[in-house]
Amino acid sequence: MTNPTMRSDAFMNHAIDAHGDAVLRLALNQLRNVSDAQDAVQETFVRLLTNGTSFESDDHLRAWLLRVAINICHDHQKSAWSRRVDALDDSKAGGDARELSTVSAEDIALRDLSDHPVWHALADLPEDLRLVIHLAYVEQRDTAQIAQLLGIKAATVRTRLFRARKRLRDALSADGASRLAAENQARVSVQPGDASPHGPPVR
């Protein structure tokens, strides 16, 4: 791909169309908040607009965008203004009236995602473990590619993936067991006025 002195509209439109969703998914995975994730996406593409990197391929462009987004999310999490209510609490509260008045279909879809058990399990993972899981399973990056994106050793990636998988497996197993127990309890519970589960009394 060429490296124009000033990024053309065609180049930027292609980058956003081809890779915008990937950048948004990564930002949402890291920041756990729709508004913050969208801000991170916007900043990522602003940096692309003003950056002079020459991209050899579309995959090179995607990797660059992901790496920039990772750094932006990391900086965001360290900044004082990012210390706000967790995205899960925000989604349960439904946001303020101004936010609801401008909510998009994309916002609704992203917030629906927060009800998924995997989302809750991921939220409990540290940032570094959550990131390698996202890159491996959502972005389909191999160990070497993840190591290059994050600037760490491949062995470190493998260790983080192992720890992340174990914690996710344990969390999802516990969640599934809890839900099954609750369903079973509800099934056998006798409500007031219901017939006795042992049949009519013997006269």
Give an overview of the whole structure:
- The protein is mostly helical and 203 residues long.
- It folds into two domains: 1-79 and 102-115, Rna Polymerase Sigma Factor, Chain: A, CATH 1.10.1740; 116-187, Winged helix-like DNA-binding domain superfamily/Winged helix DNA-binding domain (Arc Repressor Mutant, subunit A), CATH 1.10.10.
- Helix content is 71%, strand content 0%.
- The protein has helices spanning 9-31, 34-50, 58-78, 87-93, 97-101, 105-113, 117-123, 127-138, 143-150, 154-188.
- The radius of gyration is 23 Å and the shape is globular.
- Residues 92-103 have low confidence and may be disordered.
- InterPro entries: RNA_pol_sigma-70-like, RNA_pol_sigma-70_dom, RNA_pol_sigma70_r2, RNA_pol_sigma70_r4_t2, RNA_pol_sigma_r2, RNA_pol_sigma_r3/r4-like, WH-like_DNA-bd_sf.
- Residues 118-168 form the RNA polymerase sigma factor 70 region 4 type domain.
- Residues 182-203 are annotated as: Disordered.
- This is Sigma-70 family RNA polymerase sigma factor.
**Proportion in helices:** over 70%
Mean pLDDT: 78
Helices, by number, come to 10
Structural class: mainly alpha
Query: Terminal Cα separation, in Å?
Result: 89 Å
Rounded Rg? 23 Å
**Residue share in β-strands:** under 5%
Number of discrete domains: 2
Question: Main beta sheet, described?
Answer: none
CATH architecture classification name of the largest domain: Orthogonal Bundle
Per CATH, the class of the largest domain reads: Mainly Alpha
Please report the total strand number as a whole number: 0
